[in-house]
Write a structure and sequence with these properties.
Length: about 425
């Protein structure tokens, strides 16, 4: 590659990170980023938590386990595409910078998936639509995560991760409330979250401080072999990063087991038909808003102030395990709600502290943030692919007259505890 005179060059296999600064982001820059993240999460998570289950119940009410296979297929798609998108993003050279072009592309793909899911007449086309949606919205969220790695100083990582985690908790709540109002229209139930999410994503496209990257160069050509090599890393060289990923992997295995089956869990334990569960889900979800906000925002702020992440990760794992244990035995609305409240607090704190810890130990943040964050997505996308496939087997344990949700939630609690111990004991280079 020909290098213009005066252009900066880094070590082989790296690229400059234009616009990378250690200064704190201003209020409006953070606000635009968080609102955009909420919009993308709204479009991405509402199908996972409600509308896909709603559509599966319409198309094949006798096979609810198909939901797990559909969501798993979407996770496999993001697993394969995520690292490639991250690598290409690191090397993108445009006036708009490195991250925003991929956010625009992803949002366009996500929008295109709506009619495929909404108008599907069988489970195959519903699955195809969800794979397309996963690729699109996964790319949008990945671009925003890469932007945080590029721009956030250590003193803001916990706070911003907390606010971002809050959007992850609030988006499904908001989406279920909205989708529950339009269940009579199968197109609108899928389209409404996207119509709300897109203008919010536009805030990132318009206002993100993603500097012009046209002058940046790389010493190594982007060949097929270089791309394939970038999908992996040496865990011995980056031990803390490795332990964070292992802990995340175990936690998300547990979370994925229950995420796609929560609608069926509530319907079964409360003896309410799936087609009528939306108002109850909305009530439960609304009640978890306080714990989600508190866990995300306060947990992130405290971890920044104390300069410690690992204790928060461990405490969050214990909380989530406790909530799962309550859910395992819940047979009434009060018990179901209590389990959801404790679980949501644990999830919020874990997502916040673990994300901040990941940014703290991220290798080559200035030059290959997209690559290493994409590899880190393995620890989420692989569980999201495997969990729904494994869940039917766990649900069949000791089940005579229906799914064994007690076994499912107890398994999830055990996995949460293991994940917290792995991170707390394994990471040594960060507090």
């Amino acid at each position: 590659m020909t290098r213009p005179p005066g252009s900066p060059v880094l070590a082989e296999g790296s690229a400059t990170a234009p616009g990378h600064e250690s200064e704190r982001l201003g209020f409006w820059a953070v606000a635009a980023l968080i609102l955009a993240q909420f919009g993308a999460a709204l479009a991405f998570l509402v199908p996972m938590t409600f509308t896909l289950a709603f559509r599966v119940d319409q198309l094949a009410p006798e096979t609810p386990e198909a939901l797990g296979y559909i969501i798993g297929a979407g996770s496999i798609g993001t697993l394969l595409s995520g690292p490639l998108v991250g690598i290409l993003s690191d090397r993108t050279r445009t006036r708009w910078g490195r991250r925003r072009p991929f956010a625009l592309l992803g949002a366009s793909v996500g929008l295109a998936s709506v009619p495929c899911m909404a108008l599907a007449e069988d489970l195959i086309w519903l699955g195809v639509g969800w794979v397309v949606a996963s690729l699109g919205w996964g790319t949008v969220l990945g671009a925003m995560g890469n932007h945080q790695a590029d721009r956030l100083p250590a003193s803001q990582r916990g706070k911003v991760a907390g606010l971002a985690g809050m959007t992850t908790q609030l988006a499904p709540v908001t989406g279920v409330l909205l989708a529950g109002l339009v269940t009579h229209d199968r197109l609108l139930v899928f389209l409404l979250p996207v119509l709300i999410g897109l203008p919010l994503v536009a805030l990132f496209l318009l206002f993100a401080q993603d500097a012009d990257s046209r002058e940046a160069v790389s010493d190594r050509r982007l060949t097929v072999s270089a791309v394939l090599a970038s999908y992996v890393f040496d865990p011995r060289k980056h031990r803390d990063y490795t332990w964070v990923l292992v802990g995340r992997f175990v936690f998300f295995v547990g979370l994925s087991l229950v995420l796609s089956y929560s609608t069926f869990f509530y319907a079964t334990r409360l003896s309410i038909p799936v087609s009528e569960i939306a108002p109850t889900l909305a009530i439960i979800s609304t009640c978890t808003i306080a714990t989600s906000i508190g866990g995300s925002v306060l947990g992130g702020a405290l971890s920044d102030r104390l300069g410690r992440r690992r204790p928060f990760v461990l405490a969050a794992a214990v909380l989530y395990a406790g909530g799962a244990a309550v859910s395992a035995g819940a047979q009434s609305f009060g018990a179901v709600l209590a389990g959801a409240l404790v679980s949501s607090l644990g999830i919020a704190v874990f997502l916040t502290a673990n994300q901040a810890l990941l940014l703290d130990v991220l290798p080559d943040r200035r030059t290959e943030a997209g690559r290493y964050l994409a590899i880190a997505s393995y620890s989420q996308s692989i569980p999201m692919a495997l969990g729904p496939l494994v869940a039917p087997a766990v649900l069949s344990i000791g089940a005579d007259d229906g799914p064994d949700f007690a076994a499912l939630y107890l398994t999830v609690g055990a996995l949460a505890l293991v994940s917290g111990i792995i991170v707390a004991a394994g990471v040594r280079g960060a507090r």
